[in-house]
Amino acid sequence: MATPARMRKVGVAGEKGETRNKGEVEKEQTQSPIAATIEITTLVLIAAVAFSIRLFSIVKYESVIHEFDPYFNYRVTQLASEKGVDAFWNFFDERTWYPLGRVVGGTIYPGLTLTATWLYKVLQNVFKLHPVNVKDVCVMIGPLFSSFTAISTYLMVRQVRSRGAGLLAASFVATIPSYISRSVAGSYDNEAVAIFALTFTFYLYLKSIKTGSMFWGVCASLSYFYMVSSWGGYTFIINLIPIHALALLIINKFSTNLYTGYSMFIINGTVLAMVLPVIGFNAVETSEHFSGFFVLALMNGVALVKYLKRTLTEAAYNKALRLFVTASIGVMGIVSLAVITFAMTSPTLRWSGRSLSLLDPTYASKYIPIIASVSEHQAPSWSSFINDLRLGIILMGSGIISCFRPLSEGSLFLVIWGVLSVYFSAVMVRLMLVLAPAACCLAGIALSDVLEVLCKSYHITAPAPEETVTSPSKKKRKGRRNSRSESGLGAIPRPLALLGISGTIFVLSYHLFHCSFLGGEGYSSPSIILQSRTRDGGVYIFDDYREGYSWLRENTDYEAKVASWWDYGYQTTAMADRTVLVDNNTWNNTHIATVGRAMASPEEKAWVQFRKLDVDYVFVIFGGLVGYSSDDINKFLWMVRIGGGVYGDIKERDYIGEGYYRIDEKASPTMLNTLMYKLSYYRFAETVGRDGMDRVRNTKFGNPDITLNYFQEVFTSKHWMIRIYKVLDSPTLEQA
């Protein structure tokens, strides 16, 4: 049991420790010019690495837009840059969702488009760089904002912990593969700018509650407005920040700084979000936004109670507290009654389908197959956490522990961010993008603490011998105590410290090599340009997508209507410049189900449905010849499920043969008779033989004698990846 004297000694040591920590903080704030120059230079180099590591796609291929959604963003940016922002807001796109069309200005998050348009105008009018076109700006948005993300991450972690931790976190986020996958050159998607807006909003929010300044609270709300305008994932911010504020209230860390910063953020941010047409009154009507208002109301209640306790006598305070509790119960009862009434008319309480899929991972597969069909909405494999986050996920747990030593408002925020991100990314692989910066921040803090211990241990000098100590054993114990006291932590022998520093440098070098490899090989290939390795180590390019879209653009009428699965709608409109029935916006489930129903129907029935929709051409993606696994046959069951969710005559069990989804001779008769099957395998036997193999399914196809009477093949790309068929005006009899 500790004696009072011992306890006094511990208390004095603690006070000295606190004084020493304050001194270290003051010393860090008054940084020498040389150290400041090194810090700024390092940060600039990190930003340069973040930019350059994302340029592999341009070096290997060309300046080209990637994936599917970016083509719509590029098309709209072209309109805004050529005809002005007013034309963008008033744009009605009659070439999509035929015959419905789409009001683009009211259904799009405009942040990415307006950012690229503004940059293009600045380069043209201010810097007079007239050779730069809109596509070049769109291609470079991802690398540019990745540099900004590295800087904002540094600012946030520096504010929470230290400069060294900030630089390490910035270096991680600059090179982490999960973020590279969404920000390579040509990946002109909302996430390219949204992750910068997310990290910068968090930095400004933490600064506002640290300083209690209304100015920083307003700045945080402006950054939040930019995040809202850029990506639908802004709901993560509007729920994470209230959770953090609620946690501070629970652990009794309420302060005027917290109240000022949080209230300015929530009120101004909500008002600004309502300005956007795509959000409007959803900012105050949908359940995703209610947590912010609930915590604000709770915070006002806590502030009132503290104010009354500080100003009233004990008797008056007790009376006021009883009145306050009674009034609160009454208000909560009215609110609960309103919520129950609202639930009667809206079973999901106006939660979006994607939000409900996060809260209940089985919700989408049960009720909204269009959401479950998207590969980005599937749960990731465990290996993807290591492959895409690497050191970030390995050091993340240590970073969480380090944040509790000591626990501040900022470190608590990083802990909550990290824990929630792990859960949501485990439900939906797309949200690995939200986990990436959180893992980088925590990994930077953990590695900074490790390097601090190693470097301090390496620079510890041997203690000078004292004449009064005669025993050699006492000298050794005295020296060890001095070493530990000078280091502040458990001292490590100098050789081991040097070995630890060298090992850390090696691990970081390997991490950078791994990230560069994934950035160059894994995430730099555009979806429209595919490649494979030949036996002699060379590279073989598959350019079938652009070949097919070019044929549509050059050989069909401008007013022609083209039907395909919704995955290819944006690309068809942007690259082929033809009207499509559905595209990647997926706002009308019934329209998509109609296309799925036609693909899952027999040829004659599908022809009738397409004729009613004025369809002139139908194309399918087929990978059976070259082994391209992302073809329409592999996606076909989702077409059946989505179509069956609207039309009762489509039953998934009818397309299953002997308990499995198959395309061989044991496939179900319904499957072998569908339009999708016929359009994919038509004339396939002429190329691979009647006993040939489908290289994706690794099996023989079931029906080599396919005939078409209502559709005519007009184009098949070099590797059979795109097959285009004309919808005939009247049926013709084709001989087998």
From TrEMBL:
The keyword Nucleotide-binding does not apply. It is an enzyme of class 2 (transferase). Residues 561-618 form the STT3/PglB/AglB core domain. It is found in: Endomembrane system. Its EC number is 2.4.99.18. GO terms for cellular component: endomembrane system; membrane. It holds the Pfam family STT3. The lineage of its organism: Eukaryota, Viridiplantae, Chlorophyta, Chloropicophyceae, Chloropicales. InterPro entries: Oligo_trans_STT3 (IPR003674), STT3-PglB_core (IPR048999), STT3_N (IPR048307). Its cofactor is Mn(2+); Mg(2+). The keyword Cell cycle does not apply. It comes from Chloropicon primus. Belongs to the STT3 family. One of its GO terms (molecular function) is dolichyl-diphosphooligosaccharide-protein glycotransferase activity. Pathway: Protein modification; protein glycosylation. It catalyses: a di-trans,poly-cis-dolichyl diphosphooligosaccharide + L-asparaginyl-[protein] = N(4)-(oligosaccharide-(1->4)-N-acetyl-beta-D-glucosaminyl-(1->4)-N-acetyl-beta-D-glucosaminyl)-L-asparaginyl-[protein] + a di-trans,poly-cis-dolichyl diphosphate + H(+). Residues 1-28, 466-488 are annotated as: Disordered. Residues 41-443 form the Oligosaccharyl transferase STT3 N-terminal domain. It comes from the Eukaryota. Residues 15-28 have a biased composition (Basic and acidic residues). It is a multi-pass membrane protein. This is dolichyl-diphosphooligosaccharide--protein glycotransferase. Residues 473-482 have a biased composition (Basic residues). Keywords: Glycosyltransferase, Magnesium, Manganese, Membrane, Metal-binding, Transferase, Transmembrane, Transmembrane helix. The chain crosses the membrane at residues 34-56, 100-120, 140-157, 164-181, 187-206, 234-252, 264-284, 290-308, 320-344, 414-447.
